[in-house]
Amino acid sequence: MRTRREMLSLTGAGLLMPLASVVPAAAEKAEPPRNDDGLYTQPWFHESFLDLKDDLTEAEKAGKSLAVLFEQRGCPYCKETHVTNLSDPETVAYIQKHFLVIQLNLYGARTVTDFDGKELEERALARRWGVNFTPSIFYFVPPASALAGKDGGAAAAWKLIGYWKPFHFHSTFIYVHERAYQQPGGFQKWLGERADKLRAEGKDVRLW
Hints:
Elements: H1 4-12, H2 19-22, H3 52-61, E1 65-71, H4 76-83, H5 89-98, E2 99-105, E3 111-113, E4 119-121, H6 122-129, E5 136-140, H7 152-155, E6 158-161, H8 166-177, H9 186-200
Parallel strand pairs: 1-2
Antiparallel strand pairs: 1-5, 3-4, 5-6
């Protein structure tokens, strides 16, 4: 076994690389996989026949709600959502427990059946729902029967438009699951109260 003096000598001579230069930084996060459309994706996203009423019915039977996520290829904020927000185990566990998530392509050509039975390509559905930014998430809550005959863009219980930082992102799923959008005051008031409660419990909350 080499002595510490010998190891330092070899390193100084360039024969051994310092440990820090060969071990990846702990903060580095692996890039998520992409699907056939070039979108970043997650292995737990729901495999759907893209009939949204059926998807919400399936979610309802499992005691969950439905989240429809629009993304596009080359979107840096979509990548950040996957690399940062969807790499957090607590966030992912909460979403999987309470939601089915369907990913759609803002410019995709797959046929999707809206809640009113209208069949449209993904890109046409995005226009119908008024999707102008990615990522955008539309949340739908049971009962599925209440959305029959409705345009999903108007029937969504809540919408998350654009990239939101991790605390806000996770909180949005809680906001929908707990039906807090039905309470007076809106999301910002609810979010502030949630942050105050967590701080009182000694937890670190980063709003910005």
